[in-house]
Write a structure and sequence with these properties.
By secondary structure, the chain is an alpha+beta fold. The chain is built from 20 helices and 25 strands. Among the domains are: 83 residues, Alpha-Beta Plaits, CATH 3.30.70.2110; 336 residues, DD-peptidase/beta-lactamase superfamily (Beta-lactamase, 3-Layer(aba) Sandwich), CATH 3.40.710. Strands 2, 3, 4, 5, 10, 18 and 19 form a seven-stranded mixed β-sheet that branches. The protein has a five-stranded antiparallel β-sheet with strand order 12-11-23-22-21, sandwiched between helices. A three-stranded antiparallel β-sheet has the order 1-8-9.
Length: 606
């Protein structure tokens, strides 16, 4: 037979083996040199446990720095090793825990289901009060329960009782902290990184039950404790406001009632509340039944504000020079628009004839406001652009930047994207066809009285020892208009008997504007029956020419008890609620500076 080997074949085989050897060597170098640290870490993780221990969460105080609104305490969680329980122990332990924990029939059944699950580590309960923990320890010592242990865990508590039953103080503003230590809603969420700090990271070897062996623990990252936060709110005023809201809610049979008290010069929120509210210590029960209770209507829900928006129309007309407070305008009761295809009415559908513009605002005449808006420019397009420009300058359609989680922008339609008809312009002149938040209204009114500066509302005054600086968003109204706008709002409640008797506060300077708006039912495609949004935004001051506080009030879905054409009256009207809250605020000790601020551009005119 002929030979099958050859020099070429030998060389080829040698090259193949050499290439394979080099590839194996390269692969080994890759694993042992390049990937060494990563693979070593993965190997350690297979036998180690990485544990993140939350840092101490910062506390939250009111503006005085002495009233604790939120803090963290150490409670116990109850843990069971059900895998090691005998049937008798499981039965006896379940019976004893029902009594100690005060469980009802449903909760007792759920406990039995847990105890039947054979696990070496099973959490049965969180946040046990000290007396409950003591009773469990005593039961363990006496042998009435078995295979149980208590482990410490941080628990967030809100110690101040709110102004209504089953509520905690400033619940909507504060939010709460979930079981994972993460802030939800309000300040707790917005300042999560500040309050929560960063956790300590520990690596430890695992035992057979995948639990850390304490003796092997090593700190990888030391963590940073959370910072305390001091708010701008006054706890006493906050409580008083919450009590006022509860009373109005009961009297008016409203869906909700909300209010804000704000410093118009700094943007500090002195009180901010809505009822119905909730108990932040029992947030899990609320989450199971009505989680929408957590949403703060003052910053997270929009509504058509109604006639409080006539002050925006006043700004547009005054800036444009097409109207003054004394300008005579004929109120015709019903105004036909768009060539007779649409119309707007005054609330009473009655013509009041010629009147001054300031009286048109005071008596809240829709026709007067619509005529001013229609005459801002030479046609509907230019008039719409001017009114829309005032809205956007005052912050409508964009967030105010308040330091609370969940703020929404509101809804305003840009006439350059979809042109407005005359009816759109007229409706916008008195606050229909636009959706805003109460915090946007309060901020816009603050600009009217403080010299035209759009402040940024805020709820935190200091983080740790560091003061938070007040900021603003610039000049948005001519300074020279401030005296006129203040006089116009003061005229509203001094001219009309209906307002004057229930809004003025003897010895104080007060002004503002009401609003009553129908509510659209999107499901039924029509206006809701006999339900309205009632608003009032105004100011109060200790001197006869200086606004010092802005107060915004909203009564959501109030049901009037007196219904006549042009008169929709409830037991507690929005302007009455304003007066109560304004009086509470202006008389709160040490809330305001000793010397009232002088609004920019405002000089005494009375």
């Amino acid at each position: 037979m002929g030979r099958t080997d050859s020099r070429a074949r030998h060389l080829l085989l040698l090259a193949v083996f050499a290439f394979a050897a080099v590839a194996l060597l390269a692969r080994l170098a890759w694993w042992q040199v390049v990937r060494h640290d990563d693979l070593a870490t993965q190997a350690r993780l297979q036998t180690s446990l990485r544990v993140e221990i939350p840092s101490a969460r910062g506390s939250i105080y009111d503006r005085s720095g002495t009233v604790v609104l939120a803090t963290t305490v150490e409670r116990d969680r109850l843990v069971a090793n059900t895998a090691a329980m005998t049937a008798e122990q499981r039965k006896a332990t379940g019976k004893e825990l029902r009594t100690i924990l005060g469980l009802d029939a449903k909760a007792g059944t759920e406990l039995d289901v847990k105890l039947a699950d054979r696990k070496s580590y099973l959490i049965l309960a969180h946040g046990l009060e000290p007396d409950v923990s003591d009773r469990i320890r005593e039961a363990l010592t006496a042998g009435r329960v078995a295979q149980l242990s208590l482990e410490p865990e941080p628990t967030r508590i809100y110690p101040q009782t709110g102004g209504a039953p089953e509520t905690t103080l400033a619940a909507h503003m504060l939010g709460f902290v979930n079981r994972d230590g993460v802030g939800q809603y309000g300040i707790e969420q917005h300042y999560q990184d500040v309050l929560g700090g960063s956790p300590k990271v520990v690596l430890a070897q695992k035992d057979v039950n995948a639990r850390a062996i304490p003796e092997t623990a090593a700190v990888v990252e030391p963590g940073v404790p959370g910072s305390d936060v001091r708010l701008t709110i006054d706890a006493g005023l906050q409580l008083a406001v919450e009590q006022e809201l509860l009373a109005a809610w009961i009297a008016d049979h409203a869906k909700s009632v909300s209010a804000i008290v704000m410093d118009p010069y700094t943007g500090e929120i002195y009180a901010e509340a809505t009822y119905p509210s909730y108990d932040a210590n029992d947030y899990r029960a609320i989450a199971a039944k009505s989680p929408n209770r957590f949403i703060d209507p003052l910053i997270s829900q929009v509504y058509e504000p109604g006639s409080v928006f006539k002050m925006m129309t006043a700004i547009a007309g005054l800036e444009n020079g097409t109207v003054t407070p004394d300008t005579r305008i004929k109120d015709v009761g019903t105004l036909w628009l768009d060539g007779g295809r649409s119309k707007i009415d005054d609330a009473d559908r009655r013509a009041k004839g010629w009147m001054s513009f300031e009286d048109g605002v005071a008596y809240s005449r829709n026709v007067v406001a619509a005529k001013v808006a229609l005459e801002l420019g030479k046609n509907t397009r230019t008039s719409a652009a001017k009114l829309y420009g005032v809205w956007t300058r005052l912050g409508f359609g964009s967030p105010t930047g308040i330091d609370l989680a969940g703020e929404v922008s509101g809804l305003v339609h840009d006439p350059t994207i979809q042109p407005w008809r005359q009816i759109d312009l007229a409706n916008g002149a008195f606050g229909q066809g636009v959706a805003v938040t109460p915090i946007q209204l309060a901020t816009a009114y603050a600009a009217m009285v403080n010299g035209g500066i759009l402040v940024r509302p805020h709820t935190v005054e200091a983080i740790g020892d560091q003061q938070v600086a007040d900021t603003n968003r610039g000049q948005v109204i001519e300074r020279s208009l401030t005296p006129t706008l203040v006089d116009l709002m003061h005229h509203v409640i001094t001219e009309v008997d209906f307002y004057r008797d229930r809004t003025l506060i003897p010895g104080y300077f007060v002004g503002g504007k009401t609003g009553t708006a129908q509510i659209w039912d999107s499901k039924r495609k029509r206006w809701k029956d006999n339900l309205f949004n009632y608003s009032f935004v105004g100011f109060v001051g200790r001197k006869t020419d200086r606004p010092e506080l802005v107060v915004a009030v909203r009564i959501n879905e109030g049901r009037p008890t007196v219904v006549h054409v042009g008169q929709l009256e409830m037991p507690v009207m929005s302007f009455e609620l304003f007066r109560r809250i304004a009086h509470d605020a202006i008389t709160t000790p040490a809330l305001l500076p000793e010397k009232p601020r002088q609004p920019v551009g405002l000089t005494a005119s009375r």
